[in-house]
Amino acid sequence: xxxxxxxxxxxxxxxxxxxxxxxxxxxxxxxxxxxxxxxxxxxxxxxxxxxxxxxxxxxxxxxxxxxxxxxxxxxxxxxxxxxxxxxxxxxxxxxxxxxxxxxxxxxxxxxxxxxxxxxxxxxxxxxxxxxxxxxxxxxxxxxxxxxxxxxxxxxxxxxxxxxxxxxxxxxxxxxxxxxxxxxxxxxxxxxxxxxxxxxxx
Length: 201
Description:
Layout: H1 23-29, H2 32-58, H3 60-87, E1 95-96, H4 101-122, H5 133-152, E2 157-162, E3 168-173, H6 175-194, E4 197-198
Parallel strand pairs: 1-4
Antiparallel strand pairs: 2-3
Helix pairs in contact: 4-6, 5-6
């Protein structure tokens, strides 16, 4: 490669092209306008990209979609917290200190069952008079299992109760609801047999 290969390019298109330049240099020497136009084109593309980004940012529909996505995220978070509080299970077999709502309800039910057992064991007219606590609870387990079997067999039931105004109400229990009632009672009896300490958070 000769020194002429590094001959500087002219700044103006109208300048005369020296004949002694190599053809490769003459080719670049003829197109300064093309270089300027290319630079202008690149700047224009950058400007268009910036404008598009601004438009996307200021687009009301995009903002609305962003708000919808944020609301959905918050809904999922609230739903997760609700399910966690409802189903949280304290696996300590002897003491409950951090139960969820369902386990709290079962534990409270177990305390009511124990209170009923003590009343029956001290009532000489009761068939459970002077029986041990475990014996009375085992009889209650049989009753709970009967509810589960009835539900599993497709049998429903009717539940009659009195509301706060003293009115008697009757509701139908579907087979699945009847089986669930029996399973909840079994869970309460299990806690009544084993739970020694229960603290409502």
